[in-house]
Amino acid sequence: MGQRGRGRVAPAVMAALCAVAALPAQARAAGEVRPYAFDPSAEWVEGAASNTDARRLRAGGTYRDTIGPGGRLFYRLELDAESNAYVAATAVPRPGTKVSFDDALKVTLQDRDGDVCGDDTARFGSARFARPLGTYAHRTVEKDGPCQERDSYYALIERTGAAGSSGDPWELEIRHVTEPGVEPGGPTEAPEDWPSGSPAPPLTQARERRGGTGFHRATGLEQGEWRDRIRPGETLFYKVPVDWGQQLFASADLGSTAGEGYVSHALTMALHNPARGLVDSASDISYNGRQKSTALDPLPPVAYENRFDSSDSVNGMRFAGWYYLKVSLSPDVARDFGPGALGLTLRLTVAGGNGGGAPELAVV
Fold first, then answer.
1. Spatial distance between the Cα atoms of 349 and 222, rounded to a whole number of angstroms
2. Residues in CB range of 167: below 8 A, 6 or more apart
3. What distance lies between CA 339 and its chain's CA centroid?
4. What pLDDT, in 10s, does the model give residues 26-68?
C-alpha cells in the first residue's frame, strides 16, 4: 500500500478540539451516575438470526440494537474492492448487571461463503462489573488478503458468557465506517521497533474537564494534565487527536479518600481508535483509599503500515484522528468508600509528528 499526501489531523477534528478547549470547566454532575450517551442520530435496526434476513448497514451510519445471552445477530454490508471497511459494536449492560470474567462481545466480518475476513473479541476479564464494552472487525484491502472482492458481506455480533451471569439484554451501539484505499507501491510491512520509553509528564497546570459518557459525547483533550471526578459505577470517555507519526502516552491517577477497605480491579482504562476498535488496556487499579496510578504501555507512532502487524496494540494505531480513552470505576468502591465521586487525573503526552500518511476514514 502506498502513501499519498502529508499526514495531518482533519481540520474538523482540530476545530472541534479548539471549541472544547475554549469552554469553561463544566459543572460536575450531582446525584446518580450518568448513563451511557448513545448517538441521538443512531437508527434502530434489528439484527437477524440468519444472514438471509440481515438488514443492511450503510457506511458512515450509527445504529442501535439489543443482544441477549448467547445472542448471534447478522447485519449485511455492501463493500467495494478498494475501501477498507470497519464495523464496531459497543455493548452497554444496565448498571448493576451481573457479569463474569468470560462474558464477551465478539464482532466478525464474513463473506458469502462464511469465510472470516476479520474478527475480534472484548471481555470483561478480571474487572467483573458492568460497563460499556466494545471492539470491531475489519476488511483490509491487501495483496493476497481474504475478502477482497466487491460483494455482499456480513457482520456477525455475538454475546457469550457464563451461565451465572445476568440474563438481561445488553444494548448495542453499532458503527460502520470505510477508509479509502491508497495507490500501490508503498510499504506493506509493520514497523519492528519504535521509541518505548515514556516521556516525562507534561509540566503544565492541571485543567478541569468533565468527561463524556459515550463515544458520541467524548470530551476533547490535548496534551497536558486534566482533572475530573468519577463516581463508582461510572464510565467516562475522552478523545485526543493523534496525527500521523505521533505517539500517544496516557496515564490515569485515582485520588485518595477517607475510609478503609480494598477493591480489586477498581479502575480500568482502555484506548480505542477512530473506528472504535479496542487498541489496548492499562493494568487495572486496585484501590485501598490511597492514591493509585496506571498507564498504557508505550504504543507505536500512528502509521498506515501498522495495520500489517498481528498485534491489536500495533495494528490499531493505523489512523490519524481521534483516539478515545475510556475510564471506568467499579461500583464496589461505594461499598467501602461511599458513593461520592473520587478525583481522577489524566496525564497525556503526544510526541513526534511529521509522519507520512494515507487517506483518513471516510467518516470519523
1. 8
2. 68, 69
3. 27
4. 434 445 789 999 999 999 999 999 999 999 999 999 999 999 9
